[in-house]
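HUMAN: Forgive my ignorance: could you write out one protein's sequence and backbone structure tokens?

ASSISTANT:
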Amino acid sequence: MANLRLALAQFDFPVGAIAANTERVRSLLRQARDTHHADVIAFPELTLCGYPPEDLLLRPAVLAACANALPALAAEARGIAAYVGHPHSLGEVYNAASLLRDGEVALTVHKQALPNYAVFDEKRYFRPGHESYVCEIRGVQVGLLICEDIWEIEPAAKAVANGAELLLVINASPFDTEKSAQREELLIRRARENNVAIAYLNLVGGQDDLLFDGGSLLVDADGTISARAATFEDVLLIADYDSVTRRFSAPHWPHDIDASRTARVYAALVRGTRDYIEKNNFPGVLLGLSGGIDSALTVAIAVDAIGAERVSAVMLPTRYTSQLSLDEAAAQARTLAVDYQVLSIEPSFQAFLQTLAPVFADRALDTTEENLQARCRGVMLMALSNKFGRMLLSTGNKSEMAVGYATIYGDMCGGYAPLKDVYKTEVFALARWRNAQADGKREIAGTTCWVISPVVIDRPPSAELRDNQTDQDSLPAYDVLDAILERFVEGEQSQAEIIAAGYDEAMVRRIARLVLINEYKRRQSAPGPRISRRAFGRDRRYPISSGWR
């Protein structure tokens, strides 16, 4: 009988940070060996250069730095084996991983299945491998695979044909709201069809608009899920494998207390926001706090991501700003203890109107004057960002971005947009979920205060750019709008199909037209965390200039 102790390094390995990633591998290797007495430690896909490295892979110095790091890490791999992901240049470049042990690079495997769909573009950079390698570690035959290899039938089958009883799979599998269920279904199927146990390690962290959720898994040979790791947490996972029963034991794995969709999305937005801020070395963030639901949720995410002391909120009122908005923005700022300023944009708005008056003299008021207010706010917020070095967060949501209900060079200003891939209906759900957490309701000076006021959640959404304005003056109700958008954007349904499903024809055609003509705005929008399978940007790449309607 052979028992194997595995360590799975579910950690963030930032793109391009080769020296820091190498040091983290070294530290975790020592911890796994010296503290946990592990026989093997696995690290995520492309550990050394981070994932996805994109065109960094076209720089010879990046490939050389990764190659130079391997021998130094191999020297540390004594008394333990380490499975480390890295690019491998042999004239052509491979997505590779090496098994380090006994002070040497014992084996290097090449990823066989290169994904080239959705957010993936691996065929631009890599050539495929053709072999499934198996090695013996402490009496156990271990098949070594990389990410997409487990999604195809042949790599796992070849590894088992070569004698593998356990598959060790390292991954950089991006998050979306449906992905964890799909992974589990796949791994259960792959384990059962091959009668092989699977240790599945996933990367964690935010990389620009991509999110990696961790959620590493252990699957016994009969397809039983033995353990699920927590999502969006950096953790060294320890598990024991019994080669007789082909089962795992991992009693101390941290897991998600709340595994609901809303909880996972909120954790994703917080992690994505935090990592974008930290990886780009911003000292803090600022945002326009309007008294509306989008900015209220955004400031809560920012505080949860980096702490109140690094968040500034600014109310930028005009003649159309209601007292309710002023009161609710101030109350939330007090509740969250963020720096808060009120700077009226009325003087700058008036200056623009006066300057333009001779040119606009014979023209009626329209959205031009409304957009001027948004652009005044954008100028003010960017000035504060420049002066104090804090990155501006854009507060728009996916519903608005889909139909162009946002002002370019106005409320679209910002370096990062936490809600960019979140439909408005989910914004409301996330706000209610956040309030339901233990610290969602607070007692401050004898008054009950909420992280996000129920008044803000329940009030009709409004841009407040004219008297008595609401979003539904120009848009359908958000539950209807979002349902149509999900069919048109995520589902790629035709207008005819959506109409046949029971939606008003004129409304469907109008919304579809708005989505199509506002591509130019989205191309100029800030990046934001991807949580769906059809996020604007990497997933959905429509031409700006197109005759297709």
